[in-house]
Specification:
The chain is α/β, with parallel strands linked by helices and 295 residues long. The model has no long low-confidence stretch (mean pLDDT 90). It contains 14 helices and eleven strands. The strands form three sheets. A six-stranded parallel sheet has the order 8-7-6-9-10-11, sandwiched between helices. The protein has a three-stranded parallel sheet with strand order 1-4-5. It has a two-stranded antiparallel sheet with strand order 2-3.
C-alpha cells in the first residue's frame, strides 16, 4: 500500500495545525490528540473531535499490524518528522505533487520591477506582516526608488476589504483580487520575485511549485518545511520572529540583480531535476516498485 499525505490528519484533528491564525503543535508534542478533543478542533465539537480521534487511532493501529508493507509519501521532510508517531515502522518517501501543466521560464537576464504575493488574504498566510514591512520599506526610500519596489497582491479572502481600506493611500501596493491561473502565470513571468510569508506549517504550496516552474525567485518565512523547499533551490527565507528581516531581504532582492540572477538559475535547475512531471513520475514509479517488491 502507498499512502500520500496531503495534510497532518494522522496527528491533527483539524488536518491543518493552525489555531487562531498561528501554527499549533500541541498534539504533535504530546503525541496524543487529547488536546484536540478538549479544544474542539474538529468542527468546533468535542463529540465529533472525539469520534475522529478514535477513528484515526483505530486506523493507525490497523496500519501498525502491517507496517512493513505500507509506504507513505510526504511532501517534505518536515511533514514526515511531524508525523513520526503516526508512521511508526512504515517507510516514508519525500516527493512533491506534480504541477500537471507545461512550464514556462522567465528570461534569466530580464528582471521584473515588482514583488508578488499570490494566495488567500488571511492572517495565517502572513499577508499582514508582508504589507507592514513593504510599507516600512517604501516609507524609508525616495518616491523615485519606490517606483521599482512595487508589491502586487493577487487573491481573495476574509481580510481583503479591511486591508484595501488600510492601504488605500499607498500607491505602491496593488490589490488585484482573484485571478484565473493563466493570468496568475502571466504575473509570475513578469515579477522580480514572489513572497510566501506564511505563519503556519504549509505542506508544499502550489504557488511555490508554480513559481519554480516559471524560474521565479522565492522569499518565504522560515517556518515548517518552507526552508527545505526553497533554500538552494531558488529562494531565500526570513526569520518569522524578526519581521523586519523581511523588509531587509526585500530591499536586497529589489536592489541586487546578481542575487535575483543566481536564484533564477537555482529555480530552473530545481524544476528540471525535481519538479518536472517527468522527474516526479519517475520517483513515484520507483516508490511503487520498491513497495510492491518489498519482502
Amino acid at each position: 500500500k502507498v499512502i500520500t499525505l496531503h495534510n497532518y490528519r494522522f496527528m491533527c484533528l483539524a488536518g491543518v495545525p493552525l489555531r487562531d491564525g498561528k501554527s499549533c503543535s500541541k498534539c504533535f508534542e504530546a503525541r496524543s490528540m487529547l488536546d484536540g478533543i478538549k479544544l474542539r478542533c474538529y468542527r468546533q465539537s468535542r463529540l465529533q473531535s472525539a469520534w475522529v480521534a478514535l477513528s484515526i487511532s483505530l486506523t493507525k493501529f490497523a496500519m501498525s499490524l502491517d507496517a512493513r508493507t505500507i509506504s507513505f509519501i510526504a511532501l517534505t521532510k518536515f511533514q514526515a518528522q511531524m508525523l513520526t508517531e503516526a508512521l511508526r515502522r512504515s517507510k516514508c518517501y519525500i516527493r512533491a505533487n506534480p504541477l500537471g501543466r507545461p512550464n514556462q521560464f522567465q528570461k534569466v537576464e530580464k528582471h521584473g520591477s515588482f514583488a508578488l504575493f499570490v494566495g488567500r488574504i488571511s492572517t495565517e498566510k502572513g499577508i499582514h506582516t508582508l504589507l507592514e514591512q513593504h510599507a516600512a520599506l517604501t516609507n524609508s526610500q525616495s518616491p523615485r526608488d519606490n517606483d521599482s519596489t512595487r508589491l502586487v497582491v493577487i487573491g481573495d479572502g476574509p481580510g481583503l476589504i479591511a486591508l484595501k481600506q488600510k492601504y488605500k493611500g499607498n500607491r505602491y501596493i496593488d490589490f488585484l483580487g482573484s485571478m484565473k491561473p493563466s493570468q496568475v502565470n502571466e504575473y509570475m513571468l513578469k515579477a522580480r520575485f514572489i513572497i510566501v510569508p506564511s505563519l503556519w506549517y504549509e505542506g508544499y504550496p502550489l504557488v511555490i511549485r508554480e513559481a519554480i516552474s516559471c524560474g521565479l525567485p522565492i522569499l518565504t518565512s522560515n517556518i515548517g518545511g518552507l526552508p527545505e523547499i526553497v533554500l538552494g533551490s531558488g529562494g531565500l527565507t526570513f526569520d518569522i520572529n524578526r519581521p523586519e528581516e523581511l523588509k531587509e531581504i526585500m530591499f536586497k532582492m529589489f536592489a541586487d540583480n546578481e542575487i535575483v540572477y543566481k536564484l533564477k538559475i537555482e529555480a530552473r535547475s530545481n524544476y528540471k531535476n525535481n519538479l518536472s512531471d517527468n522527474a516526479i513520475m519517475k520517483k513515484l514509479y520507483s516508490i511503487y516498485e520498491s513497495t510492491v517488491n518489498y519482502k
